[in-house]
Amino acid sequence: MEKKRFFRILGRASRQQVSALAAPYKEKQRITVIKEPAKSLAMIRMREPVKESLFYLGEVIVCEASVLLGQTKGTAVTMGDDFEKVLDMAVLDAAVNAGIFQEEDALLILEAAQTAETEKENALYLNTMVSFTAMDAEEA
Amino acid sequence: MGYVAVSGGQEAIEASIRLLDHCRAGGGQELELSAVQQKLGLLIDRVMGEAGLYAPDYAALVLKQCEGCVEEAVFLLRAYRSTLPRNYYTQTADTDDMRIIRRISAAFKDIQGGQILGATYDYTHRLIHFDLKNEDPMELLRRVREELECQEPQPPKACPRVSDTLKKEGLIDTYEPDDSEPFDVTEQMLEFPAPRSARLQTLARADTGFLGGLAYSVLRGFGAIHPTVGELRTGYVELLVDYPFGEGESIWIGEILITEVECFSEADGEKEMKLADGYGVVFGRNENKAIAMSVVDRELDLPGDFPARDEEFVLMHGDSLEMNGFISHLKLPHYVTFQSKLDAVRKTRKKPQASGEAEHGADEESQGGCNEE
User: Fold this and answer.
1) Which 8-state DSSP code applies to residue B337?
2) What pTM was estimated for this model as a whole?
3) Per-residue pLDDT averaged across B184-207, rounded?
4) What is the ipTM of this complex?
5) Please, which pLDDT band fits residue A140 given cuts at 50, 70 and 90?
6) Contacts of A47 in chain B (CB under 8 A)
7) DSSP label at residue B268
8) Does residue B360 have a pLDDT over 60?
9) Contact map slice: A 79-138 vs B, CB within 8 A
10) pLDDT at position B251
11) B301 touches chain A (CB under 8 A)
12) pLDDT in tens, A33-51
């Protein structure tokens, strides 16, 4: 699973769900925190559609952490300030990098639930799709 | 202007700060942060946008701290952000793939992907709902959750931009992607003429009222355009940063809600008329600000003496923190400078003893006043 997808599932999961996934590795593996959870800023880079140039929209607060699982590094960055969650995400990343991650099925179940939630929410918005009828003839 | 420090008043100042708690105490009701964040979302959006910092929970906290004062909340968020390191720049956020929750066009009734009204007050009767005085919040939550659960899942689809169609027809100018590193107004002093990136960043974090007033001036005749909103889209955009331990890999750090607007207006081409495009983008659902930004963005490209075309005027006077800070300082002690002004005025009221002496005295006094200022 690519990292983008991996972190999307974890990022959208609750702290408790991430904690449950990380628990076996924290119990059985030697975890060394090499970067304590801390807050940081991420500047948002965007491209505007008029001149196709880049600009900065603003910043977002994130928290980050890095760990060693045995000799393998893992890291995580996520929006907000949930230090416990970001540390657990880093542990899971290290587990993936070490080749010992065995919770892929659990991740896929989480992802399916997240997708269903998003799609139901999307259906609510699509209920407001509108088809206006012009009352006067429009010029071509 | 000369500044003179004043001393004293410590006890009164401390008592004044304590008195703020009396203003916040109310009748003892709890103001839960989650309620502020989730039920006053448009206020949160405005504060985050003007602070230039996307942090909904912190925006709720500072609004609680300052009794809902927008400029004070912006000040607190800006001050806090200045204490944090900036360890990341996101990859270029792709708004073409935005997960759309609202999308309308005032230019075309039929657009590819459809018009989605989303949640809007546009078509509501502006009547007070007095029944909300006794609303049961749990019943409201139960009702909206039930409605959500009943939905048939629909995968989100990306929608092409309305302007893309007009670009394909050659009615709007097209440009090659420009990957020049953007100007950052939080780290560099603005110089004029300002690069486009500095303009957009400054406008995106400008005071909502200032931008609205400027755009209104354009529409009322202090400008040339009465643009049409070609597309207004609100939705969630994913943010990614580079993964440090693997080339080509990314970390998904979250998603933000933004509103984008493109407004169209007529423009002179080399041989024939064409359409010009103005762009606005803001955090959250602050869509009037996004529209105003798109109007001002277009207006700034035009020559002329209207306020909204004066780049320095527009970009230097719309920052909430700077404008409110400067206006706010007027109420702080100015005893010496005002005494100087007062002396100068009083002396002009003295009866001249001789015409020559009076003229000489007036010269000295006005000069003295200038020195003190």
Assistant:
1) H
2) 0.92
3) 97
4) 0.95
5) very low
6) 92-95, 177
7) E
8) no
9) 79-81, 97, 116, 118-126, 128-134
10) 98
11) no
12) 999 999 999 999 999 999 9
For chain A, the domains span 3-109
Backbone angles phi, psi at A98, to 5 degrees: -80, -10
Select from B58, B90, B279 the Cβ nearest to the Cβ of A44: B90
Q: What is the pLDDT of residue B41?
A: 98
Distance from CA of A74 to the nearest CA of B (A): 8
Q: How far is B84 from chain A (nearest CA, A)?
A: 6
Of B54, B115, B156, which is closest to A122 when you measure between CB atoms? B156
CA B197, B200, B204, B207 torsion-angle sign: positive
List own/partner pairs for B277-281 with CB under 8 A and 24 or more apart: B277/A49, B277/A50, B277/B163, B277/B172, B277/B173, B277/B230, B278/A50, B278/B227, B279/A48, B279/A49, B279/A50, B279/B200, B280/B203, B280/B204, B281/A46, B281/A48, B281/A57, B281/B95, B281/B200, B281/B204
Crossing angle of helices B41-51 and B70-81, rounded to 10°: 50
A77/B contact by beta carbon, under 8 A: yes
User: Does residue B307 belong to the interface with chain A, where contact is any CB pair within 8 Å?
Assistant: no
Which amino acid belongs to residue B164? Answer: D
Residue B354: is its pLDDT beyond 70?
no
Torsional sign, CA B199, B238, B283, B187: negative
Yes or no, beta carbons of B115 and A122 under 8 Å apart: no
Residues with Cβ within 8 Å of residue A7, at least 6 apart in sequence: A76, A78, A89, A93, B250, B251, B252, B253
Written as one letter, the residue type at B156 is P
If you write DSSP's letter for every residue of A20-78 in order, what string do you get? HHHHHHHHHS-EEEEEEEEEEEEEEEEE-TTT-BEEEEEEEEEEEEEEEETTEEEEEEE
Nearest CA in chain A to B113: A129
> Which DSSP state fits B319?
B
Residue B302: Cβ-neighbour burial (10 angstroms; 0-12, 13-18, 19+): middle
- pLDDT, one tens digit per residue, over A98-129 is 999 999 999 999 999 999 999 999 999 999 99
Alpha-carbon gap: A100 to the closest alpha carbon of chain B (Å)? 17
Residue window 14-53, chain A: list those with CB within 8 Å of chain B: 39-53
Q: Which chain B residues are within 8 Å of A2, Cβ to Cβ? A: 249
